[in-house]
């Protein structure tokens, strides 16, 4: 796939993996890498990530080497 749109609502280790319905930046990076996508777009993220997007993206880049960014409210993406 060219683009993975992935929610990113949790901090790593803040959930029980058996019942998790959200992921962390690290989880999102792992999913993107395993799926072999070209680009990762994070959505549904907490205010802490919005205030410091580079810190969140650094956590993604531990697992995913491709382009990654946080979506903006109201953003439209042409496919």
Q: How are the strands ordered across the major sheet?
A: 1-2-3
Helix content: 25-40%
DSSP, total strands: 3
Q: What class do helices, strands and sheet pairing give?
A: alpha/beta
Mean pLDDT: 89
Tell the overall outline.
globular
Which stretches of 5+ consecutive residues score pLDDT under 50? none
Rg to the nearest angstrom?
12 Å
**Terminus-to-terminus distance:** 11 Å
Briefly say what this structure is.
The chain is α/β, with parallel strands linked by helices. It has helices at 25-35, 47-51, 53-61, and strands spanning 3-7, 39-43, 68-70.
Describe the structure.
This protein has one domain (3-67). Helix 1 packs across helix 3 (53-61). Strands 1-2-3 form a three-stranded parallel β-sheet, covered by helices on one side. Helix content is 32%, strand content 16%. The longest helix has 11 residues, at 25-35. It has helices spanning 25-35, 47-51, 53-61, and strands spanning 3-7, 39-43, 68-70. Strand 1, helix 1 and strand 2 form a beta-alpha-beta unit. The chain has 79 residues and is α/β, with parallel strands linked by helices. The protein contains three helices and three strands; from the N terminus they run E-H-E-H-H-E.
């Amino acid at each position: 796939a060219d683009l993975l749109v992935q929610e990113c609502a949790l901090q790593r280790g803040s959930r029980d993996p058996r019942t998790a319905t959200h992921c962390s930046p690290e989880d999102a990076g792992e999913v993107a890498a395993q799926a072999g996508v070209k680009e990762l777009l994070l959505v549904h993220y907490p205010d802490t990530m919005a205030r410091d997007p580079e810190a969140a993206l650094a956590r993604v880049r531990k697992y995913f080497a491709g382009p990654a960014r946080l979506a903006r409210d109201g953003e439209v993406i042409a496919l």
